[in-house]
Amino acid sequence: MNAHFPVATTCAAIQVTDMTVAYDDKPVLWDVDLDAPPGILMAVIGPNGAGKTTLIKAILGLVPMTAGQVLIHGQPYHAQRQRVGYVPQRGSVDWDFPTSVLDVVMMGRYGKLGWFRRPGKTDRQLAIQALEQVGMAEYAQRQISQLSGGQQQRVFLARALVQDADVYFMDEPFQGVDAMTERAIVDLLKSLRSAGKTVVVVHHDLQTVSEYFDWVTLLNVRCVASGPVSRIFTDENLRKTYGGRIAFVGRAESIEPMPGRISAPSPVIGA
């Protein structure tokens, strides 16, 4: 079990209050409250359709909220945009776009520069250093379409690194990568946490939650529980999240998960 705990602070890195997101009057997230202190590595887990990706996109303002409030280090996201890094799901990106690995990573500098300033020598050097951190420096001039899935994921991580953010959101960064890349990503995430960054990861592998993360949020439309892994990642909370007993190596109960979503009343759009 990971024993890392953040230093006590009066200001949450991420504070979500009463968040509701609905599509066609159907709630995808319902009345979600979430506080994440600085300096943690947090997994967001839950069944398919639980709203994990929607949670991140709503925090980032990429999908509209029906109700609720999001604060990043005590201020609205739009005022803290430069302090936030985002790694989307690899499958949501057009990897056939004709650009080089280095150019993709340099895009991470635009938040600091603004769209009308061209990256300079310092920005280029930072991009190369980020590629070195993820083991991709030798591919700097390669077209992104020529990379494997794991290599593409490393490039997106490098792009997030050059943002020099305080809070990172990563949507399924381990999806479709080999064991070596997964270990490299875990080491990188832990180094970000050691530097005082807050890292939120949408994750699906329950068997690695305790090994990789120190905090966890269990989500199924509602927030079932959130906090330190040692306190929150329990059989009871997992049953509440997944709708029944679940298959989990090392736990007493091991049967197939039961599908299900936590029901919520239909919200009034615009309320």
Please tell me about this protein's structure:
It is a single chain. The protein has helices spanning 52-59, 101-106, 110-113, 121-133, 149-161, 179-194, 209-212, 229-232, 235-242; strands at residues 14-23, 26-36, 41-45, 67-72, 75-76, 84-87, 167-171, 198-202, 215-220, 222-228. The chain is of the alpha/beta class and 271 residues long. The strands form two sheets. The protein has a six-stranded mixed beta sheet, with helices on both faces. A four-stranded antiparallel beta sheet has the order 2-1-4-5, covered by helices on one side. A hairpin with a 2-residue loop joins strand 4 and strand 5. Helix 4 (121-133) crosses helix 5 (149-161).
- Output the helix-strand order: EEEHEEEHHHHEHEHEEHH
Strand residue content = 15-25%
Radius of gyration: 19 Å
Number of helices: 9
Tell how many strands the DSSP assignment holds. Answer: 10
Structural class: alpha/beta
Task: Provide the residue-averaged pLDDT.
Answer: 83
Termini separation comes to 42 Å
Q: What low-confidence regions span 5 or more consecutive residues with pLDDT below 50?
A: 249-271
User: Looking at the structure, what is the overall shape?
Assistant: globular
User: Biggest sheet, open or closed, and with what strands and sense?
Assistant: 6 strands, mixed
**Looking across the biggest beta sheet, what order are the strands in?**
6-7-8-3-9-10
Helix content: 25-40%
Q: What's the short version?
A:
This protein has about 270 residues and is of the alpha/beta class. The protein has helices spanning about 50-60, 100-105, 110-115, 120-135, 150-160, 180-195, 210, 230, 235-240; strands at about 15-25, 25-35, 40-45, 65-70, 75, 85, 165-170, 200, 215-220, 220-230.
